[in-house]
Amino acid sequence: MNYDDPELLDRLAAEYVFGSLSSRARRRFERLRQRLPAADKAARDWESRLMPLSGSVPSERPPARVWNAIDERTGGGERRASTRPWRWLHPVWGFAFGVLAALGVVRLFPDAMPIDAIVQERGTLPQSYVGLLTDAQNNAVLLASSTRYGRILSVKRLRPFEVPSGRVAVLWALPREGAPFVVGVVPPAEKGTLALADTSEKLFFNVSQLAVSFETGVPAPGATPSPFVLTGHCVKLW
Amino acid sequence: MVDPVELQRLLSRVALGDRKAFRALYDATSPSLFGVAVRILNRRDRAEDVIQDAFVNVWQRASSYSDAVSRPMTWLTAIVRNRALDMLRSESARPAESLHDDENEGIHEPADERPDPLGLLERAVDEVRVRDCLGDIQGPQRQCLALAYYHGLSHSEVAARLAAPIGSVKVWIRRGLDRLKRCLEGSQ
Asked: What is the pTM of this model?
């Protein structure tokens, strides 16, 4: 297909937004949106154009369990727990600090020292996946960790890194075999969490490396990443 | 309709990790977004999953929202519609045409009193700007547009529903969208 033809692009965008494309055609257009700004713009224009149609749909308040699940998946429960005394020594962070120590970088971050207390509290480090991502100068920049069967990835920025305006920092997993896949967007805060699509065990079992690239949005499944700005090994801790 | 300026403010706070703003955004927008998802999926349990995924997505992607590109409600609705359409397409067979939910037995399910898609289109016709544009689209073309937009039916599903050739359905939808676009642009 000739995607340089603005009329064709507009028609595809219209049908994509309208919802009449088949599954395969939808996937194709989503990939097109990722690499062709004109396709993305055409889709956004149609989203705005057709918005009044959604306005006619009667509202319904979702049941409370929906918010509870969202809160859980975005780390709200974890955060509330962390406000209780000693709970800031959450297993995930405890484990993360443990890895820092194991990798010999804890001396760079004196704040991360209370590992003894963590080990004393738990007796052992939990089974977890961890990635320590470094920049081109080999500075440790990002620490990502998740318990083996957890669905929340904790992310800590060990030093500031600037995300260019209009871009987001996307965390990728690089399997030993096969194409990289998107884990999620690196939270903007110094410490944050992101919800995983599945348990760490399922997602990272065959992943040898993690990496971060700057993207204009969350890439569609199968998209090719932009050049990586941070990379690091993904290791099992057990 | 929630004030777009307030929604923009909330989204910018969410991008900074403000959970109170996230909750306020959810309270303000989830009823209309849930309505959209229920209409497409025709099942409340699936629609709940969509809203859940969509807001987790919003929490992660709020920093990528730009008010220069789209209005907050348009951005949020697109996330929900796309997630709902993906879920619909990923199901090998379209679930039963009822809101009965076997997995949630015992949970009261209100009777399906939703307007049919044509009814929704009629309501949309009452909206100020689209009134004239949809007003002169009639017959099967109008039915196609309603089934595709509100129930997320693909060309082939619309064709099966209307017992019409798929080629005709494609032409009806394309022409309907062309007319809608020309008209909406002309009325701006």
From this structure: 0.56
